[in-house]
Amino acid sequence: MMFSVLLDSATPWQIYFQDAATPVMEGIINLHHDLMFFIVFIFFFVSVVLARTLSVFSYEESRKNDPNRLVVHGTTIEIIWTVIPSLVLVVVALPSFALLYSIDEIIDPALTIKVVGHQWFWSYEYNDFETQLGTVNFDSYMVPEDELQLGTLRLLEVDNRVVLPLNTHTRVLVTAADVLHSWAIPSLGVKLDACPGRLNQTSLFIIRKGVFFGQCSEICGSGHGNMPIAVEAVETNKFLLWLNDKI
Questions:
Q1: What are the chain's domains?
Q2: HSE (CB half, 13 Å, CA atoms) of 64?
Q3: What CA–CA distances, in Å, run from 131 to 47, 60, 70, 135, 143?
Q4: Is 2's pLDDT higher than 60?
Q5: Residue 221 and residue 225: Cα distance in Å, rounded?
Q6: Taking a C-beta distance cutoff of 8 angstroms, is the pair 118, 141 a contact?
Q7: What is the pLDDT of residue 72?
Q8: 3-state class (DSSP) for residue 125
Q9: Is residue 7 over pLDDT 90?
Q10: Are 99 and 22 in contact (CB under 8 A)?
Q11: In this structure, what are the phi and psi dihedrals at residue 137, rounded to the nearest 5 degrees?
């Protein structure tokens, strides 16, 4: 039996994306692949043209023998190198705008969580569920290195993970209690600024189980590197059991 190993956290010397767990992140990766095709093609095309120009039209030879050395303007070539890049930009812009629209679109959510950044930890509120003491809420701190269990991730594991159900439209409200923070989880395609006095929002639709790690992506003070994020995506029944323990 073969097992696939998914990349859901930062790794040493990582140079590529983490594996997608939401349609938005899949769209980001696909757009990256499409753009790289154009970038690589343009890079090699320009390199070949530049190398041929340097090798064939050297300064001394063109000054002595080139019959066109007095030509200073070419209407045709001007049109070509203006129109073609414009068409390339249009082809690139269309999928970019579609992806941006999908990121900003907030579908009627089945679940809402509120994320509050502090110096230096995160707190979470599940506003749709009430307890005798108010809404379901908890703080999430980084697990110190000397308390890590075998196999857990240094600087990424937390004492209270955010648990979310699969295939559920979730609205995330992000703010801060003190200074600027940023709630970022690469596998989910989320990076949202947490600003004091302001609520920013985004949506999540997680399509596979797993534990997805992120970190604060806004320099917020001396403890900036100690603000990890851990989101655990589970089946709906397991989410309800977890929620029942919190209520």
A1: 23-104 (1.10.287.90), 111-246 (2.60.40.420)
A2: 4
A3: 65, 85, 84, 6, 27
A4: no
A5: 9
A6: no
A7: 63
A8: strand
A9: no
A10: no
A11: -150, 155
